[in-house]
Every structure is written in C-alpha cells, then in structure tokens.
Amino acid sequence: MLYWVLKHLFAGPLVRGTFRPWVRGVENIPAKGPVILASNHLSVIDSFFMPLSIDRRVFFLAKKEYFTGTGIKGWLTAQFFKSTGMLPIDRGGGAASEASLQTGLRVLSEGKVLGIYPEGTRSPDARMFRGRTGIARMIMQADKPVTVVPVVMVDTERVLPIGAKVPRLRKVGMVFGEPLTFTRYEGMAADRFVLRSITDEIMSELHALSNQDYRDIYASSIRNKMDADSKALAAAQKP
Fold first, then answer.
1. Distance CA 172, CA 167 (A)
2. pLDDT tens, position by position, 74-123
3. Angle at which helices 134-141 and 95-109 pack, to 10 degrees?
4. Is the pTM of this model over 0.85?
C-alpha cells in the first residue's frame, strides 16, 4: 500500500515534476509474468527513477546494510527501502550469494518484475563494464520462462554522481529495449559457457541501446583500484 502511495501521490509526481524524465519503449515490458529488467547502473538513484516510469511494481535486491541501521534514521531508511520494493541481501560470497539468488528466484516464481544490474555495481566513470553471470543463473534456474527487458538509464550520474549527497537538477531518460528470451538454452543451466553467453548477449543489447563506451573488465576491479589509489594518496600526504 505504501509503495503505491509513494509512487502515485508523493515521490512519482515530485520526481516527474522536478527532473522531467523521458521514457522510450515502455511498451516492451510484458503486462504479466516473470520479468527481469536488466539495466546499466550509473547512479544509486537508478533504482528510484526506473520503477516510477512503468505500471508494474519492480523489486530490487539491495545490500542488507540499508535495513540494519540503528536509531530513528536507521528505522526510517529501512522502512523507505522496504516500501519501495527493495529486498535485503548479503553481498558477500558463498552462501550469501546463494541466498541472493534464491531471493531473486522467489520474486520471479511469483510472476513479478525483478530489477537487476548485471555489472554488479555502479559504473565508476559512466562507461559500461562486463556483466556478471548471476543474472544468467537466475534466468536458467527460474521455474518458468523469464522475459528479459534491457534498460538503459541516461544521465542519472549527472543528477547524483558517486559520492554526492545532494541531487542536481538534470533531465534524465530511460530506454526499454526489445524483450529477450533464452528458452533455447533449456537444460543447460550448469554450463558456464552458456551462462557467459547469456550474460554477454544482455550486455551487448544494453551497449547497443546506450551511448556508453564499453570495457570488457569488471567495474568492481576499477572501483577497487580507485579506492586503493585514493588511500595511498591520502597516506602519502600525511605529515
């Protein structure tokens, strides 16, 4: 209930009136059945702009830290994320990754819409990076055929860049591409080459829809290097 109140009475009108987002291809989203919206990831606000542009409710997997804060601020943050369709997950490896997969599969088994960022993290420099195969695992392990709709967010990094606290007034856009299906790979869920092929096909569609430069490395590798360089520079500047 709170989700629809926020979307149609508060957040939706406010965002549309302030940022005037433009949308193309929303008719490519099936009206029912399990759907994955596979999107590039330029800013943390991608997860708020995208759901406001379509009729169906979108669920995202969000790091559990958003739901475990203390005090009034922590409680309000957790309630906001819950009300906007965010599902808490542990982003660690091993059992945590498996739990994340099962959470996504539960959403799809209920015939709902799941938003996924195949790159795994926000782009550090507005370029597009190599996709991770978790999205392919979900597609292949779902208990019914899943439609994948590629989504490109445009200029959201100009509104809220990494590290920024206050949004800037910029016009943003969203492009929903042609639906993709992967039933031709039925029975091949354990084949890592199939998982990579599915992931690369999705990333290729995203690249074709966007004007981003593409790098065939993981975004997390770049972000880790940037963090390490920043820490090294800070240490070198200490007296």
1. 12
2. 776 676 666 666 777 765 555 666 778 888 999 999 999 999 999 988 99
3. 50
4. yes
Contact 194, 188 (CB under 8 A): yes
Separation CA 178–CA 191 (nearest Å)? 26
Which CA distances in Å does 36 have to 45, 65, 215, 237?
18, 24, 23, 46
Torsions phi, psi for 178 (to 5 deg): -65, 140
Between the alpha carbon of residue 232 and those of residues 6, 124, 221, the distances in Å are 43, 18, 16
The β-bridge relationship of strands 147-154 and 173-176 is antiparallel
How confident is the model at residue 121, as a pLDDT? 87
| Cα separations in angstroms, 202 against 116, 149, 151 | 11, 9, 10
Q: In which residue are the tokens 């291809």 written?
A: 25
Main-chain phi, psi angles of 25, to 5 degrees: 80, 15
C-beta separation of 35 from 113 below 8 A: yes
Q: Radius of gyration over alpha carbons of the chain, in Å?
A: 18
Question: Which residue reads 């991770």 in tokens?
Answer: 132
H or E stretch at 114: strand 113-116
